[in-house]
Amino acid sequence: MIRDKTHMEFVDRWAEHVMSVPREKWKAEQTAFINSVFEKAGHFYKRLEKSEKGRGILKRLKEERTKR
Amino acid sequence: MERGVSDRSVLDAFAEDFCKVAEKHVKYIVVSGYVAISHGRFRTTEDIDMIIEKISFDKFEAFHNALDKAGFHCMQSTKAKDIYEYLAAGDGIRYVRKETFLPPEMEIKFAKDELDEMQIKTRKKMPFTGLDIWFSSIEMNIAFKEELLKSPKDVEDARHLRRIYEDEINPELIEEIKEKIRILRLRNDKR
Fold first, then answer.
1. Domain layout of chain A by residue ranges
2. Spatial distance between the Cα atoms of A50 and A8, rounded to a whole number of angstroms
3. How do residues B94-109 score in pLDDT, each as one tens digit?
């Protein structure tokens, strides 16, 4: 299953970029993106810790992740 | 030039730290999404998939204890015996860094059939990634993603790998693996 033409075009363009520059360059770009996603999620969970409701959500999330 | 620690993403650091422990205890492979990501695919993931050879409880306990010492804990249980039962039943077990219960996580499964054993037997380190990790081969990953997994994300991962290894992949081998997938997996269940 493919999403649409533009997604696949981006995959191709990005692969082209990865092949045409040194690893240090694409790695730095990719690392910035990946780390920002985890950082953003980390901030969100830290905010949840600050309220009782948030702590309840975190508790449920932890239980669900343990059960999976 | 030697690669520095600072250019590793959260995922790379997690994967390499985990695999460094695994390497000493078990034959393993990293498969699926992280293979594409480590080859530059512009996306992230919450979990990294690892397949390990079937090992005895004693061997697993030593592996689990080493992971614990290295700062990883299992989400399902702290007891090696309980965790081993999940593995033996064909279920995945998940490890995260000790200070959290959040991703990234390593999901580990025992090799379940001759396809997985073949994946482990033909495992490779990929110089393109700059990572010290054993991966299942590119042909295996493409075949699984195109023939079995098939989500948009998987199809895009396969496309990325095909582009990166355009001149090196073996199309006949991919077709052979797909045929094995059809026989061993699609007539039974999903990976």
1. 5-67
2. 41
3. 999 998 888 999 999 9
d(CA B54, CA B97): 24
Predicted pLDDT at A7: 87
Contact B75 A65 (CB under 8 A): yes
In contact, B101 and B78? CB cutoff 8 Å: no
Nearest CA in chain A to B76: A66
Instruction: Return the residue of A nearest to B45 by Cα.
Output: A34
**Which of B10, B151, B164 shows the shortest C-beta gap to A35?**
B10
SS3 at position B137: coil
Q: Is 3.30.460 the CATH number for B10-137? A: yes
pLDDT in tens, B118-163: 999 999 999 999 999 999 999 999 999 999 999 999 999 999 999 9
B26 phi/psi in degrees, rounded to 5: -155, 155
Indicate the domain borders of chain B: 10-137
- A35 min Cα distance to partner chain B (Å): 6
